[in-house]
Design brief:
The protein is an alpha/beta fold and 442 residues long. It has three domains: 157 residues, P-loop containing nucleotide triphosphate hydrolases (Rossmann fold, 3-Layer(aba) Sandwich), CATH 3.40.50; 175 residues, P-loop containing nucleotide triphosphate hydrolases (Rossmann fold, 3-Layer(aba) Sandwich); 86 residues, K homology (KH) domain (GMP Synthetase, Chain A, domain 3, 2-Layer Sandwich), CATH 3.30.300. It contains twelve helices and 17 strands. The strands form four sheets. A six-stranded mixed sheet has the order 2-3-1-4-5-6, with helices on both faces. It is globular, with a radius of gyration of 24 Å. The protein starts with a strand and ends in a 9-residue tail after the last strand. Bound molecules: guanosine-5'-triphosphate (GTP) (2 copies). The site of one guanosine-5'-triphosphate has 18 residues, from helix 6.
Length: 442
């Protein structure tokens, strides 16, 4: 499982700057989905060829008793409790403050591996800074500059070396799709889980250990096998499953990471919220196959149904690749169709794309529309092959491919998506340029 790193610190120390640096250095070229929200406080980070989850907590005030600051502190507390490692950020320029000390006291109690990160250290005397922050009793201060990138790689090396790498290779698909049911609080996730597996269809249920490993519940429907990945610490009580924990962003992110197909549950009786968009954005970014279940369809009239569809089109345009199902988890309506869509999305995500066909499609696409020139060079694409599954990755080889615009990448994506009928899964395109850009001057 990918480690979860949580950034903590008082306002203005540079948490967002570090967060952006860690989450934006994706080497795979992912065409930006129009409308995809970027103002998130959690994301998929990448450094040293490793991936991890990063959560940025809003300026943390452990002594706030009420109001929005208290609410933010509660969320930070939850993230701290669920972190694999804490990055406690302080500001070299303002020096040690009482607020830092309060946070340090709180973090020492959390008992999670903690790294003391002194930011804005560019051009400063390191030994003096270290001496000052050493007082916090959280080990050796690690001086970085998030804005300039100084020492960020060595910091990540230090942090990541304490987490074992995931074994290579996906385990094979005999047990069918691994499904995560995600959504913001109260949309009906638990109800959905119970409709799916609350009865005798559960094949086996591993009692949760004390580990952080997500709980998995294998179940069968219409002769097909699925594994449900738990997001909320499900416990079996009598005939039904109950969520024992509140909504957890980190558990949601981890479940998305471990799933093949994500079912995003939306609530038809409410407006689409920022939180819906953020969760959806993460699913897309993680490259997971997706089915959207618009739940509580039984409880809304025709007018409202029309309104929610418009709301979805406006606020979640980047989910257009997915199938939408209008369901009632409570009444069991639309659930069979939803599982069919899960099967379809899974197959799409796992499709094997033959190299000759890929290359032929690529060359046809170029014949229809050439990539635009950039600074005297025209990108030249020669052949394509598949670089991975779930999501399908198409690697295109050629030269001068560094400046293919996002609009052209989307054009290629659409071409492949339609030709291979890849509904329900995002698709990634990566370019591999040969070294000599002058080879193709035209
Ligand atoms: N000199 C210097 N400034 C930095 C560095 N990193 C961030 N800053 C600046 O510090 C300010 C605050 O940075 P943010 O990343 O927004 O801080 P934050 O901790 O996320 O703040 P909140 O969102 O309020 O919690 C901005 O003006 C940044 O440009 C750095 O490494 N060096
Ligand atoms: N009318 C209607 N109500 C539903 C439906 N599905 C769930 N609900 C109701 O919505 C409320 C929330 O459902 P839950 O299943 O607890 O929602 P959840 O997403 O698991 O919520 P958290 O555990 O807070 O994350 C409950 O009162 C359910 O009875 C549905 O299809 N139709």
């Amino acid at each position: 499982m990918k480690p979860t790193l949580v950034l903590v610190g008082r306002p203005n120390v540079g948490k967002s700057t570090l967060f952006n640096r860690l989450t934006k250095t994706r080497d795979a070229l992912v065409a930006d989905f129009p409308g995809l929200t970027r103002d998130r406080r959690y994301g998929l980070g990448r450094a040293l060829e490793r991936e991890f989850l990063v959560v940025d907590t809003a300026g943390f005030d452990p002594v706030a008793k009420d109001g929005i600051v208290h609410e933010m502190a509660k969320q930070a507390e939850q993230a701290i409790a669920e972190a694999d490692a804490l990055l406690f950020m302080v500001d070299a320029r303002s020096g040690l403050t009482p607020h830092d000390e309060q946070i340090a006291t709180r973090l020492r109690r959390a008992g999670r591996p903690t790294f003391l990160v002194v930011n804005k250290a560019e051009g400063m005397n390191r030994s003096m800074i270290s001496a000052e922050f050493h007082e916090l009793g959280l080990g050796e201060p690690l001086c970085i500059s998030s804005a300039h990138g100084d020492n960020v790689t060595s910091l990540m090396e230090l942090i990541l070396e304490s987490f074992p790498e995931d074994p290579e290779g996906e385990e094979v698909a005999e047990k069918g799709p691994r499904v995560a049911i995600v959504g913001r609080p109260n949309v009906g996730k638990s109800t959905m889980v119970n409709t799916l597996i609350g009865e005798e269809r559960v094949i086996a249920f591993d009692m949760p250990g004390t580990t952080r490993d997500a709980i998995e519940v294998p179940f069968e429907r219409n002769g097909r096998h699925y594994t449900l990945i738990d997001t909320a610490g499900l416990r079996k009580r009598g005939k039904v499953f109950e969520a024992v924990e509140k909504f957890s962003v980190i558990k949601t992110l981890q479940a998305v990471e471990q799933a093949n197909v994500v079912v995003l549950v939306l609530d038809a009786s409410q407006e689409i919220s920022d939180q819906d968009a953020h969760i959806a954005g993460f699913v897309v970014e993680a490259g997971r196959a997706l089915v959207v279940a618009v739940n509580k369809w039984d409880s809304v009239d025709d007018y409202r149904r029309q309104r929610i569809k418009e709301d979805i089109d406006r606020k979640l345009p980047f989910l257009a690749f997915a199938r939408f199902l209008y369901v009632s988890a409570l009444k069991g309506q639309g659930i069979a169709a939803m599982l069919k869509a899960v099967d379809g999305a899974y197959e799409a995500a796992m499709t094997k794309l033959a190299t000759p066909k890929l290359t032929r499609l690529l060359l046809d696409a170029i014949a229809r529309q050439q990539p635009p020139r950039h600074g005297g060079f025209r990108p030249k694409m020669r052949y394509a092959h598949q670089g991975g599954m779930n999501p399908p990755i198409i690697v295109i080889h050629g030269s001068a491919l560094d400046h293919v615009p996002a609009s052209y990448v989307r054009f290629l994506e659409r071409t492949f998506q339609e030709a291979f009928k890849l509904q329900g899964t995002p698709l990634r395109i990566q370019f591999k340029s040969s070294t000599n850009p002058y080879a193709n001057r035209d």
